[in-house]
Specification:
By secondary structure, this protein is an alpha/beta fold. It has 8 helices and 10 strands. It has one domain: Spore Coat Polysaccharide Biosynthesis Protein SpsA, Chain A. The strands form 2 sheets. Strands 3-2-1-4-9-6-10-5 form an 8-stranded mixed sheet, sandwiched between helices. The longest helix has 15 residues.
Length: about 250
């Protein structure tokens, strides 16, 4: 069974389409959807109207990305655990290809190729950020993707948290997402901890999803504050420092 954790921030208008697509493309896999309503809203559909259970949890107060998905994991029962944004669209079946990639025990998390509504691949697989690279981007440099995605599986430093698939035992072994991150960089941190634990991160181009990005929050000061706070937390964290030390050791003669 695959347990799919979806968190809605008053995004019920997106959920019906996504759940319908999951229903359409479900083949040999049993699914359960753990839907967390982080803000009060009325669902415009019957949760019993799908061929899989939709287990709804309403937060009494809003929680962060990490806490929401960790609490969903605690209620889940699948041997595979999937984190998925409500603004993802499935124009094709993706779990067969992703599951095949996870058959490699060295792979700790796998993600699909993410494209925008225009069909152009998004920058969802990246090298670990550094203060120097962040400064370079802020000054208008360091443009372009970190990895060239073709037809073969690639093994980036980290993949974006909009769609991640884990084996249950791996997510549990890591202790899930670090709840000190309220929003942003929790996916970077988790992938860093995976790599330090001896696992690889994989992006499987044979599985493709469409991201209907909701970008209004990018102009919100609150989100900018969360982003900067999380960035600083990561750069001061033990996983980041250990990754840097590990890479320096590799370069040493």
């Amino acid at each position: 069974m695959i347990s799919i954790s979806i968190v809605s921030h008053q995004q019920a208008h997106l959920l019906n389409a996504l759940l319908g697509e999951l229903d359409k493309w479900r083949k040999v896999y049993l699914l359960e959807v753990l839907l967390t309503q982080n803000l009060p809203e009325t669902l415009p559909f019957n949760t019993n109207g799908f061929s899989f259970p939709v287990i709804v949890h309403e937060n009494p107060v809003p929680r962060g990305f990490s806490a929401n998905h960790n609490q969903a994991f605690a209620r889940s029962s699948g041997q595979l655990f999937c984190v998925m944004n409500p603004d993802i669209r499935l124009d094709e079946e993706v779990f067969a290809a992703l599951h095949a990639c996870l058959q490699d025990p060295a792979v700790g998390v796998v993600a699909p190729l993410v494209v925008g509504e225009n069909g152009v691949a998004e920058d969802s697989a990246r090298r670990f950020p550094t203060p120097l690279k962040i400064l370079c981007k802020a000054l208008g440099g360091c443009k372009g993707s970190d990895y060239e995605v073709k037809n073969q599986i690639i093994y980036p430093d980290w993949v974006a948290g909009m769609f991640m698939l884990f084996r249950r035992e791996v997510f549990e072994k890591l202790g899930g997402f670090d709840e000190h991150y309220f929003l942003y960089y929790e996916d970077v941190d988790l992938c860093a901890r995976l790599r330090l634990g001896g696992y690889t991160v994989a992006l499987c181009p044979a599985a493709k999803v469409v991201h209907h990005a909701q970008r209004s929050s990018h102009r919100n000061l609150k989100y900018l504050t969360w982003h900067l706070t999380s960035m600083l937390r990561f750069f001061l964290s033990r996983p980041f420092l250990n990754i840097c030390r590990q890479r320096l050791d590799r370069k040493s003669p």
